[in-house]
Amino acid sequence: MSLRFRNGLPRVVRAARVACALAICMLALLVAAPPAHAQATPANSLTVLWVAPGDDGNQGQVSSYQLRYSTTPVGSDMTTWWDNAVPFSQRLTLGPPLAPAGAADSTKVTGLTPGTTFYFILRALDESLNISDFSNVASGTTQPCSAPADAPNLFDAVADTGQVSLSWGTTSDPLATSLHLYRALGMTGPWSEIQNLSVGTTSFLDTSVSPGTTYRYRAAYMGPTCEGPSTATRTVTLPGTIPPPAASTSVSNLHVYPNPANGPVTIVVDVQSSTSMAVDVRLFDMTGRWVATVVDGTYPRGLSEVTWNRAGRGGQQVAPGYYELLGSIGSTRVRERLVLLP
Predict the structure, then answer these.
(1) What is d(CA 148, CA 177) in angstroms, rounded to the nearest whole number?
(2) 279 touches 265 (CB < 8 A)
(3) Fewest C-beta atoms under 10 Å: which of 48, 126, 152, 153?
C-alpha cells in the first residue's frame, strides 16, 4: 500500500480492500485496516488522515478507531510496538462523528514536541467490538520553532483544604513568554489548559476542584511561536466525598455524576426496599447498541455508589457522545441520559 504526495504534502488516496489472513478471518474481524498518513500542521501538533473503511469490507460504517503514536520507530513487529512501545497517554480512542466508508477522515493530535518525528498506527472497530488489523505506519515531523529549552523546574501539586496548590521555580530562558498550566480528571482523562499565566508567576491555587476526586497536573513554558517541553505529571487526590443526591421517599432509582463527564462516572443506586435487590444497568448509544454494563449485582436498601471507568464491553474506553443508561432495580425500570466528553 503506497501513499501519494502532492506539493510536498501527502494526499489522501482510497486504498483497495485488504484481504485478511486466515487467522484474522477465523476471528471474524469484519473491519478492514484503514490506510493512514500524517501531515504537519503547527509545531506542537500533527494531523493524521485516512480513508474510512466499512465495518464489513467496503460496506457499512465503523463504530470507533484506536490510534496510537510514539517517537519510537515501529519496525517489523507491529504487535510489540502497539502493546509495549506506546505510553498510555498516547493511546487514543476516536469516536463519532466518523466519516462513512470511502470518505476521507482525520484527527488532530496535539501536545507534541516541536521538531520531532512521530509514528502512528490506526485500527478500526465495528459495533460488536471486532478490531481490524493494523493500518500502514504513518509518520510525520512537527515543525521546529523557537521554544523554551526546559520545562518549569520544581513543579509540584498538593491538596490544600479543598483546593490544589501548585508551585514551580523561576526561569531565565529569554524565549519563555508565558506559562501554560494543564489539568486532567482522574488517571485517564484528557488534558485541558486551565490557565495561561505570566512568565514571572511561580504559583497558582486551583479552586475549581471537587472533594474525593483525583486530578493530574503538568505545565510548560510558551515561546514566541510554540510551547516548550512539559513537566512530569503530578497527581493529587482530594480528601472527602461528593455528597450523593438525597434518597427518594418510595421509588428505587439511580443518579449519575458528574454529567456531562470527561472521566470516570459515579452511579448512585437508590434501593427503596426492605431487602437487598438485584441491580442491572447497561449503557446504550443513540442507535440502541449495548455499549457497556455499568452496574451488575445485588445492593442493600439505601444508597450505594458504583464507579464506572468508562470501559466498554470489550474493555476499551467508550467514545465521547450521547448515551442512555437503562436497567432495573428489582422490578423497577430505571433510565437516565449520560453525556461523555472527550
Answers:
(1) 9
(2) no
(3) 153
